[in-house]
Design brief:
The chain is an all-alpha fold. Helices cover 73% and strands 0% of the residues.
Length: 317
């Protein structure tokens, strides 16, 4: 027994000293592994906080009262949560009309971008024809060209087609594989189709199947991961698009939800002076929450399948 220590502690120290060297190595490996796990969790939580901070701030601010907005003692959690900001935002935004317009145009555009984009990308990936590489290079060029540079030609085209003040410019171009960021979505499909084995097409050719039948009955069913990724991206990007609607829509009853949100922001600015103050911050954050809520719910519903599809579409290559 070690002098000056209780018997239980002294016996434990003697036991640890008598442990073989291999046991110490095992303990060190376990400690190092657990320390690495702890550090990874700390880093992941830090990054999660960075990305989730705007969302948390948006939601917590939207339910605060005007008094709490000016109370420095209330930073995050509202002591008397209220829905007054949401009621005012829904009234000014004409929320349900805006959701109907934005969701309808976004769904139609996503379906068109997915179906036609899959056909175009399949042609670039699996069919050899003259000028294929040159056309694909032009496709890549459209990704880096800002849409503002083509604003005047687009407006002139839509005016000649008498499409201004209608939803056709929002829904027809995706069926021509020219939707919002359509080039990126075509690349997603092309990368996926290039990764499929050519033996599938050879076997279908032997059975007498043509290119369209091979695409529709063999390749497209295998492209479910890419279809989910492209459809979700197209839906969100079309929902958030604010450039094309302002280019062609003039009647405020036809405005999408993002346009109504911009008008709502300008109303707050005009009401309070040059910039909105903290007195209107809860209403503004409530409007922002309502604007992102539909696509957020769609993502929460599909995020399990979406994350699985990302790993299989070539986006991680």
């Amino acid at each position: 027994m070690i002098q000056g220590l209780p018997g239980s502690i002294a016996s434990r120290l003697a036991h640890w000293r008598a442990r073989p060297l291999g046991s110490w190595e095992h303990t060190w490996r376990v400690f190092r592994r657990r320390l690495g796990t702890l550090l990874r969790w700390i880093i992941l939580l830090d990054f999660a906080y960075i990305f989730l901070f705007p969302v948390i701030f948006m939601i917590t601010t939207s339910i605060k009262t005007v008094h709490e907005l000016n109370n420095p003692a209330v930073n995050w959690i509202s002591r008397t949560p209220t829905n007054e900001g949401y009621l005012l935002a829904m009234e000014v935004l004409q929320y349900f009309d805006g959701v109907r317009v934005s969701l309808g145009t976004s769904i139609v555009a996503a379906v068109g971008q997915t179906l036609i984009g899959a056909m175009v990308a399949y042609g670039f990936a699996r069919i050899r024809f003259p000028g294929r590489d040159f056309l694909f290079a032009l496709l890549l060029f459209t990704i880096v060209v800002p849409p503002q540079t083509t604003m005047v030609p687009q407006f002139m085209l839509y005016t000649d087609l008498k499409w201004t003040n209608t939803y056709l410019p929002l829904m027809v171009p995706p069926f021509l594989s020219y939707g919002v960021r359509g080039g990126i979505l075509l690349i997603v499909f092309r990368q996926f189709f290039r990764g499929l084995p050519y033996e599938l097409e050879d076997a279908a050719h032997v059975d007498g199947a043509g290119p369209f039948r091979i695409f529709w009955q063999i390749m497209l069913p295998l492209a479910k991961p890419a279809i989910l990724v492209v459809m979700l991206f197209s839906l969100v990007w079309t929902w958030n698009d604010n450039f094309t609607p302002w280019l062609v829509l003039r009647d405020n009853t036809l405005y999408t939800l993002t346009q109504r949100m911009e008008i709502f922001n300008s109303l707050l600015n005009n009401f309070s002076g040059s910039t909105y103050t903290r007195l209107e911050e809860n209403t503004f954050m409530a409007a922002v929450t309502l604007t992102v809520l539909p696509v957020l719910l769609i993502y929460l519903f599909a995020q399990r399948y979406f994350t699985q599809s990302i790993d299989r579409t070539g986006l991680v290559e």
